[in-house]
Fold this sequence. Notes:
Layout: H1 18-28, H2 31-35, E1 40-41, E2 45-46, H3 47-65, H4 69-78, H5 90-107, H6 112-120, H7 133-164
Antiparallel strand pairs: 1-2
Helix pairs in contact: 1-4, 3-4, 3-7, 4-6, 4-7, 5-6, 6-7
This protein binds fe (ii) ion (2 copies).
Amino acid sequence: xxxxxxxxxxxxxxxxxxxxxxxxxxxxxxxxxxxxxxxxxxxxxxxxxxxxxxxxxxxxxxxxxxxxxxxxxxxxxxxxxxxxxxxxxxxxxxxxxxxxxxxxxxxxxxxxxxxxxxxxxxxxxxxxxxxxxxxxxxxxxxxxxxxxxxxxxxxxxxxxxxxxxx
Length: 166
Ligand SMILES: [Fe+2]
Ligand SMILES: [Fe+2]
């Protein structure tokens, strides 16, 4: 069962998010996505959870703005589809969108928009300006979500430090 951080709704079973689930169910239940549960991301959660967060909030934002929410949701899930987490270097920050796109293409037939979303999500760190509005939404949501995840990590670290000294 999956749920975006901050959301009350279980993706696979809540009627409130059934349209989102309908749009992503083949991707979210795929072996490729499930494997991401093994890898940690931004110190405090799995890469699977990070991708669910980015996908879900990109979907809501695109729906609100009248963009293609389904494609943003699918590509949001796939935007960090890589298995290993090498040391977080500048090179990794620039290169992993290509790896994710290659992996996503092996498993799913992607639209032009979905491919652009995955490839451009690290702009402007990686050269190549996003081409579609959905790419901008996912690129910004990814950064916002990463910031929130880092705040969760800081809070967990602070709580642990306080406990140690009590
Ligand atoms: Fe990424
Ligand atoms: Fe990401």
